[in-house]
């Protein structure tokens, strides 16, 4: 089974992804955490480019796309085939959201990314209140990156809401990021178990 967790910054994707993997493992269901950009050389190169700036946007989009294609081929598909639940922290929806916010037309992003393996459970964490997300990001104390201004978060909330329009065949599961963590994990676990039985 292939699960993706996406959403605006500050929604707690990474924590939730790890918590879900632990809960599944506790039930005897093998689960593995992974993320995009990946930890490969290419993924690290992307993170460095994001930090330093000065890149060409269309090139950055292509790098994200290439990193994803390799990730699917070398990690996601082999692990899913072995019967593991693969939990991926950010996926193609991040490219649609963030590279569009940077100026790429959605059509081009969908042309490059639309065909990538549809997850069995694409989760989108959402929050109505951008201010709350910004507060959380501030508390992490890592400094704010490129995408972490209030306006950008508001726009990313709006774009993430539109994902079912861009991917009409994918069965999104929207999860309220402001719920207490245990509650969010339980709701998600319930959904995973339901889809595992389908
Ligand atoms: P990540 O390390 O997951 O950051 P965070 O912990 O804030 O979620 O991702 C690094 C950055 O890469 C993040 O700001 C979002 C951005 N990103 C894109 O712009 N496009 C993409 O396709 C992906 C996967 C990430």
General description of the model:
With about 200 residues, this protein is an alpha/beta fold. Helix content is about 55%, strand content about 15%. Strands 2-3-1-4-5 form a 5-stranded parallel beta sheet, with helices on both faces. α2 packs antiparallel against α3 (about 55-80), α4 (about 90-100) runs antiparallel to α5 (about 105-115) and α4 (about 90-100) packs across α7 (about 150-160). It binds thymidine-5'-diphosphate. The site of thymidine-5'-diphosphate has 14 residues, from α4.
Task: Draw up the topology in text.
Elements: E1 2-6, H1 13-26, E2 31-35, H2 41-52, H3 57-81, E3 85-89, H4 92-101, H5 106-113, E4 121-126, H6 130-140, H7 150-161, H8 163-166, E5 173-176, H9 181-197
Parallel strand pairs: 1-3, 1-4, 2-3, 4-5
Thymidine-5'-diphosphate binds next to helix 4.
Biggest sheet layout: 5 strands, parallel
Strand content: 5-15%
Distance between the termini: 11 Å
Bound molecule kinds, no repeats: thymidine-5'-diphosphate
Order of helices and strands: EHEHHEHHEHHHEH
Poorly predicted runs are none
Average pLDDT over all residues:
93
How many helical elements?
9
What Rg do the Cα atoms give? 16 Å
- The proportion of residues forming helix, as a percent range, comes to 55-70%
**From the structure provided, what is the oligomeric state, counting identical versus distinct chains?**
single chain
Shape: globular
């Amino acid at each position: 089974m292939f699960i993706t967790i996406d959403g605006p910054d500050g929604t707690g994707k990474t924590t939730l992804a790890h918590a879900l993997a632990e809960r599944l493992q506790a039930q005897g269901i093998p689960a593995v955490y992974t993320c995009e950009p990946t930890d490969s050389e290419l993924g690290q190169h992307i993170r460095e480019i994001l930090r330093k700036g000065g890149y060409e946007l269309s090139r950055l989009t292509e790098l994200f796309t290439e990193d994803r294609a390799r990730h699917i081929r070398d990690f996601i598909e082999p692990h899913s085939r072995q019967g593991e639940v693969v939990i991926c922290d950010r996926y193609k929806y991040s490219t649609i959201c963030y590279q569009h916010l940077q100026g790429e037309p959605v059509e081009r992003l969908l042309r490059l990314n639309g065909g990538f393996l549809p997850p069995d459970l694409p989760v989108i964490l959402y929050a109505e209140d951008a201010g709350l997300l910004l507060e959380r990001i501030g508390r992490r104390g890592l400094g704010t990156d490129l995408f972490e201004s209030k306006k950008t978060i508001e726009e990313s909330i709006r774009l993430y809401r539109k994902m079912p329009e861009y991917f009409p065949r994918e069965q999104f599961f929207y999860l309220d990021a402001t719920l207490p963590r245990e509650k969010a994990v339980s709701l998600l676990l319930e959904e995973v178990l339901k889809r595992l039985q389908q």
